[in-house]
Structures are given as structure tokens and as C-alpha cells.
Amino acid sequence: MTDENKPLNFLEQIIQRDLEEGKYQQITTRFPPEPNGYLHIGHAKSICLNFGLAEKFGGRCNLRFDDTNPAKEDQEYVQAIMDDVRWLGFHWDGEVRYASSYFDQLYQWAIYLIEAGKAYVCHLSPDQAREYRGTLTEPGKNSPYRDRSVAENLEWFEKMRSGALADGECVLRARIDMAHGNINMRDPILYRIRKQTHHQTGDKWCIYPTYDYAHGQGDAIEGVTHSICTLEFADHKPLYDWLIDNLPVPAQPRQYEFGRLNLNYTITSKRKLKQLVDEGYVDGWSDPRMPTIAGFRRRGYTPAAIRKFCEMIGVTRADGVVDVAMLEHAIRDDLDKNAPRAMVVLRPLKVVLTNVPEQHFEDLVAKGHPHRDDLPDRQLPFGREIYIDQDDFREEANKKYKRLVLGKRVRLRNAYVIEAEQAIKDPNGAIVEVRARLIEDTLGKDPQDGNKPKGVIQWVAAHRCADLEVRLYDRLFTDPAPDAGDKNFLDFINPESLTVQHNCKGEISLLDSVAGTSYQFEREGYFCLDSASEGMVFNRTISLKDSFGKGDEQ
Ligand code: ATP
Ligand code: MG
Q: Which of 12, 399, 538, 552 is most buried (CB neighbours < 10 A)?
């Protein structure tokens, strides 16, 4: 899948050099999600990057849950994240890991820092702490608790751990430098009291390490060589390094930052996606309109296309906004090459072929895919009554309309040419049926009378077909940057992001479909069976490039 001739990105260059210089024999990376939501397309970039680097350089990649905040985390998310990583086609090294497995070690190391005079228990309230912290331009002030004795700190830290104190009563802070130019170095918090049950450690702990304290030490414990994260952590790097330098950790991981993926028309913040779920704007995390891996899977996106997209966007040291059309392009490209074709009529209109006898049934054959001989042929039952799309018939039309018109001809795809004779209407004047004539000897041939049809339309036999419900999706947001600045993304939800089409008719090959396999419904788009519904419900993965076929396309 990777293009051998592509120049190395900056991380690949660093790794190649480290290996060449013998700094490492083998690299180890990790993907460190917090299990507080489902993975989204931004995470896919990080997954492809971390697992991809390990694959490319013969190294290992760990999956580690960064589970230091029990308040927002859940086992459901742990499971979903594992499913998503596997579905994308990656394999983590050994067992899944948890930052929480290191809580004992982190606790021991906190005591180590206290004993070295490099950590202290601080009782400033959050408001006071903010005031003491200073600003970007002004140094902070030392906490009045900063110089208490080691013995006193050990005693208070033990009180924190034992559950004797209330949430928020105090914290453990690193003792670094309140005048440091980088605010993250102004005695950052290492431990908080949180009397909460943890999804992995139960009630064993009532103090939890902060992300900054747990992350680098987890990397060191696992022997991670290249700890890759998004740019917003660049300011945390001095703290990452300080902790590694001041603790007896077994390895010296290094942090590298890359630009996060932002997509227009798309939200890539778990917090906001969770809001869409919790407030019922969508049907859960795997709603096919969600930019989550689970949503994409249900919608019919393929792992290969998502991986390809991540390769296309590349890895740089700058943040940027990628056009969602690029992702859509990758999906279309993959489905065009791989999705079997099928004929489906979304808005059925019955056509009676008056010169075909009532008891005449035949089986026509169509290719599974125009360029893929490995995909099986399709059986297409044919008879006197068929369905075509309501949009494919008009009583009269100009020359641009290359479909069925009264008195004119059209080719039924993979079948015969027909000519419309009469439109039957209900009392309101709506067309309910078309009478037409089959032109003999036109299977794969032009009519002998030289009157060639200009267009081709899809159809389905009425006597043997599949009844379908089809869900058409559009973008979830109407604004290209729905959460930029102080905009409220909820104001830009597209009211037409889901349209349900009932009573659609599909060819019988669809009766064998399994969830997750996409089809091209000819002239309509790419669709796949919905994994979360009973019966024949199809999700539109994506439309065809030209949203409406020209009629003569093949
Ligand atoms: P969110 O902002 O959606 O909550 P997060 O960074 O808090 O995302 P984590 O579970 O901590 O979510 O992320 C796991 C990994 O995925 C981290 O290394 C993070 O940097 C990376 N990641 C998250 N969002 C993106 C993104 N949009 N582009 C690239 N990488 C991302
Ligand atoms: Mg995070």
C-alpha cells in the first residue's frame, strides 16, 4: 500500500537516522487513546502513523489506553477502540496496555520525587493556584506549601492515597520553577484526589496521576522509543523530559509532535461528538453521519480507503485543514474498483411491457463488475412487469433528457430496448404506471429498424426483486468550519443530513448481501447493508461523482 518512491516524511527521516546511527536496534511506538469516546478520523491519522511507522521499520506499536481520568472513561469505549484499530487492519504488540497498570509504579515514583525534594503536597484552591501560576508574560509565585519538609509531604501524600481527604482538598505537585517561561513547568500537578471507581482498577485508588505525569513514564516502562503526539503537546515537552530526567525510569523515550488532522465540514473533537450523541442529534457514536471509525464502518467506508487517505494527507509539523472531498475521493476510488454492481430503483414506477406474455419469464445475466472478472456474474430475472425510477420517465421532454419518454425508446441496462406507449394516471393526475413495448432482438444489439435509444436506465423485475429501505446521507454540517472561533456547531447541523427512502426495489443479488459489503447501485451511488438494522436497509456510503447520471453512461 505504501509508495516506495515517496520521499520520507520528517518522522521517517528521524527514525531512519536513529536506526542507522545505532541509537536503537528496533523502534517502538504507541497509540495512546483515552477511552472517553469513540475514535474519529483524526485518530485514524495517528493510528496509521504510529502503526505504519512500526510496520515500515520492522518495529513494534503498542496500544495503550491513557486511562488516568476515571470520571469520563468507560469500558464500552475500550472495546470500541480495540475493534476500530483491528478493523483498520493494524495489530498491536502483545497485550493491550493501560496507563492504569502502572499506577503502583507511578505512585512509587511520586514518593521518589518527594524524597528527592522534587514534589510537594499543595493545598491551594484551584482559584488560588491559578493566581499563583502567573501568566504568559509574568512569572508565578511560590506556593506557601512549597517548602514543607519531606516527612510532612510523605505524610500528606499518604493521607491523599488512603482516602482520608476529600476530592480537591490538595494535590501533589512537581517542584520545578514557578518563574519558568513555560507555564507547564510552574510546579505542575502530578496527582489529584478523585474518589471514583475506575473501569480497570476498581476502588483501589482514590488518587489519580495526571496525563503529563503518567504519559512519559508509561512510554519509558514500555520501552517506547518515539512517542508521537499532536502539536498541542509541544509545550508539554520540557515537562515530559524533566520527568524522564528526574525519575529512575528504565528507558529514555523522546516525544515528537506532528500536525493534527482537521477536516472541513467535520468535527474532530470527542467532546463535541459526545454531545451530538448524548443530546440525540445522531443515532449513537456509530451513526453513519458521524466522522467516527465506527460510523464510517457502518456507512460502508473501507479500511483500505481510510488508510489510503491518511497516506495522501501525509505527515507534517504544521496544522492544517484538509478538504473532506479528499476523503470522499479515496472512498469512491476504492469502491469504484472493488464494489460489485447492482441495479436498484429508489422511487419505483411500474412499467408493463404489453407485448411480453404474462407467463414469460427469463433470466438475463450481468457482470458483477465491469472490470473485475473475479467477481461473480449476476442473475437478472426479467418478465412482463418491471420497475424503473420515477425520474426516468416523462411524458414529454427535450433532447437533453435521455431517458424514457412517451413514444421514445430507452435501453434497459443489461437487457432490452423498450418504447413507451402510454402513461396511466390516478385521479390526481399522478403517473402510476407506464405501458411500453419491448423491441425484439435488442439484447446486446441495436434495434434493427435503426431507431437507436440514446439513454440507458436501470430497472428491476417486479416478479422477483428485493424490497429495500435506503438511507441517503448528506454532510452533517452545513458550514465548512462549524466549530471555528466562537461558533456553536449545533447551529450548523444539516436538517437534511438523512433522507429515508422506503419501498425501493433492488435486484435479487442483494438478497445475499452481508453488512459491510458495498455495492455500486448503478447510476445512484455506493451503498451497503446497514449493520444495525433488521432486514434490507441500505446506507448510501457516497454518491457517484456526477450526482446524476447522464443516462448514456455505462
Ligand atoms: P479529542 O480532541 O478528540 O478529544 P484527544 O487527543 O483528546 O482527541 P486521545 O484519545 O487522547 O484524544 O488521542 C489519542 C491519540 O490520537 C493522541 O496521540 C492524539 O494526539 C491523537 N489524535 C487525536 N486527535 C487527532 C487528530 N485530529 N489528528 C491527529 N491525531 C489525533
Ligand atoms: Mg488527549
A: 538
